[in-house]
Amino acid sequence: MLRFKIIAIIFMASNGSTHAQTIITDRPDQTESSSTVKKGSLQIEMGILLGFTEDDYSSERQLLSPTTLFRYGILRGIELRVLSQLESLKDQNSSVNFSGISDLEIGTKIQLFKREHVNTEIAFLSHTILPTGSKDLTNDKWSTINKLSISHVLSDTMGLGYNVGYDYFGVGKGNLTYSMALGMSITDHFGFYVEPYGELIDFESYKANFDSGITYLINDNFQLDFSFGTGINHTMNYLSVGCSINIAKVNTD
Fold it and tell me: Which domains does the chain have, with CATH numbers?
């Protein structure tokens, strides 16, 4: 099954810009940001994704419509995360189609290192996947996704973020994952990124991928995005569009 971790995103072009924005998202790329939402703030990141994979045994189309990530700042540097999505899978060979709700993900992101006047941030993210999805879409096992996220501001208009992680889906040895996103701020509103990413499945089979995309900042709390990706050593491609909104805590002090 094709699995896109849309919750895996950093866009350092926006982070490194001199434009003072509130929203820093975990979409549209695969690399998770090293930033957390502020205490008391709610951030909602939504998207639609159309993907296609093919190998010697199957040809599969996937539609996520929508995928929604809720991020809430419970403490300074700590956020609660909930990911849910509606999913449709179609086997192109047999025309068999499955539609329903994917397994629910609940997790947290903890910022481990952030200092003023230091251009590096570090965070750790962990999700538990609950086998709550529809019959034909659930993994039917408790699973976990874990990532260490590191980012560097390279200049006022450029940033680099990367993740290393380990995922376990209830069988086998688990998967090692990586991603590296280079982001550039084109204007105060437009950003662009390029990103190689991949995984070592069961510590044996290696899959390499590449994606790219743009973001458009409507205002300090609302962002639009578009991205596309492809497999390098296997047949995979996807297109995705989305939006993110930050509902900031009202300061009554």
Answer: 12-247 (2.40.160.40)
